Each structure stands twice: as C-alpha cells, then as structure tokens.
Amino acid sequence: MNLDRLQRAPNIAIVGASSPVGKELKDLIQESGLPVGNLKLIDTEEYAGLLQEFAGQIQITQVISPSAFDNVDIAFFACSPEIMRAFAASGAAIPEVTIDLTQTGREGILFLNGLTSLSQITPIRGASYFISPHPSVIVLARVLYGLQRGIALDSASVTILEPASERGAAAIDELQEQTVRLLNFQPAESKLFKGQLAFNILPEIEAAGGTENLIRNQLAAVLGESIPIPGLMMLQAPVFHSESFSMFVRFSKASSIPTLDDVRRCLEDAIGGVVLNDTRDNSPSPVSVVGSDKIHIGRIAQDPGDPLNFAFWMTADNLRLAASNALGIAESIMLSAAAPR
Hints:
It contains 8 helices and 15 strands. It has helices at 3-8, 20-32, 81-89, 135-150, 169-183, 205-223, 260-268, 318-338; strands at 12-15, 39-43, 51-54, 57-60, 62-63, 74-77, 97-100, 109-110, 128-131, 153-162, 231-236, 243-251, 274-276, 295-302, 309-316. β1, α2 and β2 (39-43) form a beta-alpha-beta unit. The protein is globular and about 65 Å long.
C-alpha cells in the first residue's frame, strides 16, 4: 500500500469482477469519477482472459492469486463467499486494505456510510479489513435509525423478499432457465434452489436461516442497543434484482401517537438516501428501482385498530446499494490517508 498514491489515485483490484455485484461496482467506480491509478479485474480460472471495458480501455481479467495483488492499494472482494473462503484457507495474505462484500461472516470493521464513525478509519495506519454490510442491513439500519431519531421504537418485524442476484450469477441463470422452460411447457430444473423458483416463492430454509443470522448480527453491530433488532423472515422471490421489504413497526407507548406526517418527516431526515414514493401513482417496485442507490419507500399505513402500529413497503436495488456503500468506504479510506498525522 502506497499512502501517497492511496489519497490521490489508488491502484484498485476487484475480485469477482464477473459477479453481479462486481460488475455493478466496476460500473459505479467509472460513473463516479473516482480517481483510479490502475484497475485490476480478478476472478477464478473460469473467467481468466475475459475482456472487460473500463474508462475506455480494455481490461483483461486475471486469475486470483497472491501475485495478482502486487502494487494494489485497495482490494474489493465482490466474489462469491466460496471463493473468498477458499482464498483465505489457502494461506495467502489478504491485501493490506480490503473491502469485503462477500458476507462470509469474517471479522473486520463493519462500515455503513452515514452511521459508522469515521474515527474507525481516520487516520488509517497499517492493514485494515472493512466489511460492507449485507444490502438488507443497509436498508433496515438506515430506515430504523431515521424512525428512532424522531419517534421511540418499541419493536419491529420484517419480511424480506430476496432476489436471485443476491445468490450470484448461477442463481440468476437458474431463474432465467426455469422461466424459459416453463413458458415452453417444460419442467423446471432446480440445481441451486430447493425447487421451482420461477412464478413461485420459496422458503429456502437453510440459506435463509444463515442470512437472517448474519443480518441480525450486523444490525446489532451497526445500531447498538438503543434500537430494537427486528424479527426477520427471508423468502426467496422470483425476481432477478432488487430486495423488497414488508416491515411492521410499533412505536413506544411513551411517545405521543404519531401521525403519518410525523413518520414521513422522520424518514425524510433519515441519514443516507431514503426516498418517499408513497403516492398512488408513484409507488416503487423491484423493477423501477434498478440502477438507484436509494431506498424507496412506497407505502406507509397506520393500523386503524392500533395507531402505534405502522406498516411499510420498501424496495432497493441490492447490487447498486452494496456497490455504493463499498465505494463510499473506499472514498473514506482515501480521505483518511490524506488526514494529517
């Protein structure tokens, strides 16, 4: 790691450059205008030699190996959890400054832009391993934090509709193949999912249980003890991109009964990219939010039988949200390197 180069135009590596979130990250870095020295695209042998465009130049995808990180200042791991675990198990040294989007549960500095203190990385000294939270954590933490700042929360519960893209390119391909086969009156084949996902919803009990535990742990780390951790139920939805959430919250009896306008004001003031689209003609859907790094809230309903209870419909592009937070971590690292010592 070169501190002078880190603050000006770091050399960057994206591991898993061919994954859905890796591609999103590459595109976002290019769109953001982040000053980059050299960019290395790294993946498994299956994708070695793949040509990808970045900033008007053709980049050749390299095979993941210790030498691939030579002269790299910031490494993004946007690969599958299996690749990350295999690389760590090989005994290879993790790059000095790493931003991990793989959700393997490795220990590191969990960093959510707008909620995590910059003091955790300012000034940066030596090796640093940062974890970008699961996209569901980014959504729920920002929304719950915004609500709690204005009205005390008593409890919350959430049903998460997870897209295929959250489980990688193979899951996207399987959903697409199942859809095509069913439209051609052929039986759907299941390899990754535990049954037919196309035109269906699956509980995916084992996969969902592990992800729910990860989300709970990350929310507790980000929010602390002042905000209740919601009850969670994750379901596998037959959509390619964007996570959706049906959330119920109960506000504390110690608070005066909030109105819909009170709740809207809390969310408008929430830290980090919450957009209210709760009008009849402008309600968001998983399709409409693709390409946005905002959290879109499409419906807020107060329970007429108990006015302390509120229901919310929310959706966000999981790939864009994850890539945006990871890029924000990199920008904070660059500012840290420029901070006086």
